């Protein structure tokens, strides 16, 4: 089963971290990546640029309109993700708990199943 | 590469690997060597033509790769003794390797790849590579993950087998019962992965259904008296016979009750029916045989209304007794609803509400919705279809369930 592990960031929380804490988080991601690469569970991971760099595109009557900034106005934003394939939901939750962000006060890792295109006749 | 060459390589892969592993041990290294030989063959044969003795060709190339590999290892680990033994070894299969029947090699390989120390996903991947001769890239494609995700899984699986101390020998007969259960389960997983994916967007995936049937067929040839292997093969054939009718022209899933039965494959159906009838008369019963028998009852009916539902309900009850499982109870509820009316089926479903395994599962509200619809409780049925649609992670199932809910408004 494939799961997306979503890393929601909160700038207020991140800014309050000390340099040591920040380094520990960076290293923690490195270790996590190595672990799930070796176990054959990592499909892809990306860190996303600050939403200040985002643009939102809307097409109305065939005419695209572009506005700078994020789609959602919120304190939190999506900072990055891991796409993994693992045995079941329990294992996905276990993986999420290994991500350093999960242990930071004020942050949490969201685990969402990815849909697939196979199915059973009912 | 032509389909014939591909079939030939698949047929030969386990034989070459079996002979190599039996002669030299080191399943891990032998499996890699055979993979490399298969790749070399797929690159060279289309241009140069298939050699006169393709099996000897593959054995020779694989043995050379193995010798290269062991020499490299030896240089690092200074294991001269092994190197000396290997360096003098003939590179074509000799008399000794022919003394053990090939059937034993295939069986040993199956037991090895379905080693109980592995996770089901690893067992499936390794079986497809070692017995199906599928390169890692194709195994990865079968499960829609990148090769970089699949490759470490396969090498870890082989390491784990090594650590578990498995040697390339048939396990003692006393262990066969348990080990065969795992093998059958792995073959069934391969079949299901292929069967459920046989719609729409994933057509480029290798045909896992054909591969599962081919492997189960060869196991059945080796163990013709094993009723559950025969039952599994019959179940696969009878289920696969419905494949042409299970998706509509728009790619939508068609439920069993609404399938155009003239599109069912008559050949697969006839073979499956003959096999399950013969097996159940001769062998002690088991869960795969019962499931095949259920598929056979569906196969015999001209339509949903003409189906022998009391028979199906009775078979599901037997299956529940053999392997208690909420999914079996769920299926029995449908048969009970067809026999004793939807309320009786719904009562049976209520006993599953507390089962933790079903708590997040979409099949429970999906079946409930279906039975509520039968009972004429449109509003409740619509809600249950919507809940099921929300819970499933399958796109075609979600489409189907949403469509059913929409029809009721």
Automatic annotation (TrEMBL), chain A:
Domain YCII-related, chain residue ranges per copy: 1-114
A Pfam family hit: YCII
SUPFAM superfamilies given in the database record: Dimeric alpha+beta barrel
InterPro entries referenced in this protein's UniProt entry, alphabetically: Dimeric_a/b-barrel, YCII
Family: Belongs to the YciI family.
Protein's name in the database: YCII-related domain-containing protein
Organism, as annotated: Catellatospora coxensis
From TrEMBL, chain B:
Keyword entries, A-Z: Sigma factor, Transcription, Transcription regulation
Gene Ontology terms, MF aspect: DNA binding; sigma factor activity
UniProt keyword Transcription regulation present: yes
Domain DUF6596: 179-279
Ranges of residues in domain RNA polymerase sigma factor 70 region 4 type: 110-161
Residue ranges annotated for the RNA polymerase sigma-70 region domain, each copy included: 8-72
InterPro entries: DUF6596, RNA_pol_sigma70_r2, RNA_pol_sigma70_r4_t2, RNA_pol_sigma_r2, RNA_pol_sigma_r3/r4-like, WH-like_DNA-bd_sf
Swiss-Prot/TrEMBL GO biological process terms: DNA-templated transcription initiation
Similarity annotation: Belongs to the sigma-70 factor family. ECF subfamily.
Designated name of the protein: RNA polymerase sigma24 factor
């Amino acid at each position: 089963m494939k799961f997306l592990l979503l890393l929601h960031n909160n700038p207020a929380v991140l800014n309050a971290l000390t340099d040591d804490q920040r380094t520990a988080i960076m290293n923690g991601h490195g270790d996590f990546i190595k672990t799930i690469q070796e176990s054959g569970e990592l499909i892809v991971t990306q860190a996303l640029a600050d939403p200040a760099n985002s643009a939102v595109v809307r097409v109305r009557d065939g005419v695209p309109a572009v506005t700078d900034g994020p789609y959602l106005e919120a304190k939190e934003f999506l900072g990055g993700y891991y796409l993994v394939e693992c045995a079941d939901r329990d294992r996905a939750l276990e993986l999420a708990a290994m991500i350093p962000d999960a242990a930071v006060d004020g942050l949490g890792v969201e685990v969402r199943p990815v849909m697939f295109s196979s199915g059973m006749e009912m | 590469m032509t389909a014939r060459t591909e079939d030939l390589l698949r047929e030969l892969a386990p034989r070459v690997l079996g002979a190599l592993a039996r002669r030299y041990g080191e399943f891990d290294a032998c499996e890699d060597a055979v993979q490399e030989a298969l790749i070399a063959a797929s690159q060279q044969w289309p241009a140069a033509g298939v050699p006169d003795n393709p099996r000897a060709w593959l054995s020779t190339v694989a043995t050379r790769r193995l010798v290269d590999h062991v020499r490299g290892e030896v240089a690092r680990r200074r294991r001269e003794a092994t190197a000396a033994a290997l360096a003098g070894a003939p590179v074509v299969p000799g008399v000794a390797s022919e003394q053990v029947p090939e059937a034993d090699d295939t069986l040993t390989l199956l037991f090895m790849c379905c080693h109980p120390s592995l996770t089901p996903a690893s067992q499936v991947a390794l079986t497809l590579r070692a017995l199906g001769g599928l390169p890692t890239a194709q195994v990865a494609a079968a499960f829609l993950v990148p090769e970089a995700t699949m490759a470490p899984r396969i090498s870890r699986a082989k390491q784990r087998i090594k650590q578990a101390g498995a040697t390339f020998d048939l396990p003692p007969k006393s262990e066969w019962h348990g080990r065969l259960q795992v093998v059958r389960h792995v073959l069934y997983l391969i079949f299901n992965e292929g069967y459920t994916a046989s719609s729409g967007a994933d057509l480029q995936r290798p045909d896992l259904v054909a591969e599962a049937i081919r492997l189960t067929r060869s196991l059945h040839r080796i163990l013709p008296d094993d009723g559950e292997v025969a039952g599994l093969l019959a179940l696969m054939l009878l289920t696969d016979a419905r494949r042409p009718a299970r998706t509509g022209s728009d790619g939508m899933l068609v439920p069993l009750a609404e399938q155009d039965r003239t599109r069912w494959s008559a050949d697969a159906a006839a073979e499956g029916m003959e096999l399950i009838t013969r097996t159940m008369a001769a062998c002690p019963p088991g869960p795969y045989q019962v499931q095949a028998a259920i598929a056979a009852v569906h196969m015999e009916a001209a339509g949903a209304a003409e189906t022998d539902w009391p028979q199906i309900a009775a078979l599901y009850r037997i299956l529940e007794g053999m392997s208690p499982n909420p999914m079996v109870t769920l299926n029995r509820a449908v048969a009970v609803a067809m026999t004793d009316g939807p309320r009786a089926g719904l009562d049976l479903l209520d006993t599953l509400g507390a089962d933790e395994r079903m708590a997040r599962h979409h099949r429970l509200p999906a079946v409930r919705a279906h039975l509520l619809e039968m009972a004429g409780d449109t509003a409740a049925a619509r809600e249950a279809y919507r809940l099921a649609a929300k819970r499933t992670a399958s796109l075609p199932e979600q489409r189907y369930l949403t469509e059913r809910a929409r029809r009721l408004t």
